[in-house]
Amino acid sequence: MAESNAPFISLGKHLKYVREQSQQSLAEVSGAVEIDERHLERIEAGQERPAEDVLLLLISYLGVHDQEAVQLWELADYDSDIPEQIKLDGLAQASGKSVIMLLAMDVRTMYSDGLDVAGNQAGFVLNFTQTAGQSRTTPVASIGMSYEQAENVLRTLQQAMLRSKYLPNQKLLPPPKPEKQ
Predict the structure, then answer these.
(1) pLDDT, average across residues 72-85
(2) Distance (Å, whole) CA 65 – CA 86
(3) Is 46 within the bounds of a domain?
(4) Domain boundary residue among 32, 60, 94?
(5) Domain C-terminal end among 94, 128, 149
(6) pLDDT attached to residue 95
(7) Residues 19, 89: one domain?
(8) Residue 101 located in a structural domain
(9) Is residue 103 in some structural domain?
(10) What is the value of pTM for the model shown?
(11) Buried b (16+ CB within 10 A) or exposed e, 146-180
């Protein structure tokens, strides 16, 4: 493929390498960041540049850190500055070490119809899935947590289920503020 037909070949190759190192399929990654699988193929082939928000989602989902995240952003050659989510921290640079803080900025609600739970001595990973087609599941979100956090989530979920079952029409208002004297 000629360079003119694939202007973002370095970016695409790097993203494909990262995806393959994480042992994830095109379908898994495209489903997780909510883009069409063919679109991700074109990005990895260098034929298309991902939108800025899509690249940030890919960086976050694939767990790209530090200088590598900045390098991917620079390979995309956007007109905008490096976003705060992946910008090097000035204080950390002063100490001689580069640090990148990557924060997920996507707060959309994802719906799932399946859940796989994996646990070890450190805690749990909840893998939410969505059925796509005939018996094929696609991951939509993964959440890791400690045992203590899992117990808190379980307790909160049980309380919410009881409230919705037995008090379905009750509006939850904040408690009244104490009067000042």
Answers:
(1) 79
(2) 8
(3) yes
(4) 94
(5) 94
(6) 45
(7) yes
(8) no
(9) no
(10) 0.48
(11) eeeebeeeeeeeeeeeeeeeeeeeeeeeeeeeeee
pLDDT at 66 over 60: yes
Place of tokens 């070949």: 9
C-alpha separations of 146 from 58, 62, 68, 138, 173 in Å: 25, 21, 28, 25, 30
Please write down the HEC assignment for all residues of the chain: CCHHHCCCHHHHHHHHHHHHHCCCCHHHHHHHCCCCHHHHHHHHCCCCCCCHHHHHHHHHHCCCCHHHHHHHHHHHCCCCCCCCCCCECHHHHHCCCCCECCCCCCCCCCCCCEEEEEEECCEEEEEEEEEECCCEEEEEEEEEECHHHHHHHHHHHHHHHHHHHHCCCCCCCCCCCCCCC
Say if residue 9 is in the same domain as residue 74: yes
